[in-house]
Amino acid sequence: MTLFGDGLEQAVQKAFTRPAPKSAGAQMRYLVKQLKGTRAVAQMLRISQRTVERYVKDQIKKPRPDLGARLEAEVKKRWQPQIRAKARRRAATTGGIVIDTRARIGYTAPIGTTDDGRLRHLTVALPPQYAARLFDAQQQGATDQQLQQIAAEALKDVYFQDSGRRAGSLEEVRFTDIEHIEFDL
Fold this sequence. Notes:
This protein is of the alpha+beta class. It starts with a helix and ends with a strand. The mean pLDDT is 87. Helix content is 52%, strand content 18%.
């Protein structure tokens, strides 16, 4: 589970204009249509082709919990790609992204300052350039650690330094022990 990657994905999913299919049969039919065949869906979900055909015909209605989770994840990954791209583009150009987190946040600063990390609950609106960096890194397959580093840089600039108006000698922000993180567009 990737905390930052999943959080960004959930933020984009809030922009959906229609709900994703709920029933197993509808989800399976959607995947068959997207992947152009039952064989590809069967390989992706690691089940038999005949089982996929049974779901498509509504002969099986209730999947096993593990299969149900994989099925739902695959549908949501492919659902409304244009809406998803539009939401990312809007956040990266005009809207920015809001980060809500409860984590231990500390920083490296000159001697004589209180730079010990402490638990903070922050809700900060990040400008579009940081949203663009986060989404670009996610698209290029960045690790959760790399996404966390981008978020730390954004918090340093926006929260601690107030876009260059204070704390100019701040060097690095440490963003650790994350209890909760949520993104919103």
